[in-house]
């Protein structure tokens, strides 16, 4: 299946989690399907341990249900949970950028420009990783460490893979990045934060529309 394969980034556990999540959200693994660890490990060419840990993470996200003595099964995709994730991200990342703004350097802005240029030329897989790098750089100067931790938890899920599902998402997303960075350069932190808020919220709306259209 084209939507079930490892990506060339992160740990083996994260790769396995991303591959299974992608297969679920794309419909390759339908609701009710039993996810057999040995079979998944064999298909991905890895051991069972990262599969086991990946399934635990996907259970936290609500995509998988692990039943004692029976195994792991694919859940119905909960669009309300996805909506909650993106609403929380939009509000928390808006706040984090406001807090980070006084500490963002000229080098940070130059590095953001470099990442944006890279995303203009990237394929889906490269875009996913560069997009993660961009958002981390955008918020890395935030002095509120608990806030940063909350945001990272929300990032461990759907956020990473939307460019692989949504038609035109890479172009829409990178145009949003350009607008955010320009607002920072113009010394308009409130506008930059509002743009980031809308950038995240609109991505969530497009992802939910994709899932509902696929299931409809």
From TrEMBL:
PROSITE patterns: HTH_GNTR. Keywords: DNA-binding, Transcription, Transcription regulation. It holds the Pfam family FCD. It comes from the Bacteria. One of its GO terms (molecular function) is DNA binding. Residues 10-77 form the HTH gntR-type domain. InterPro entries: GntR_C, TF_FadR/GntR_C, Tscrpt_reg_HTH_GntR, WH-like_DNA-bd_sf, WH_DNA-bd_sf. This is GntR family transcriptional regulator. It comes from Salicibibacter cibarius.
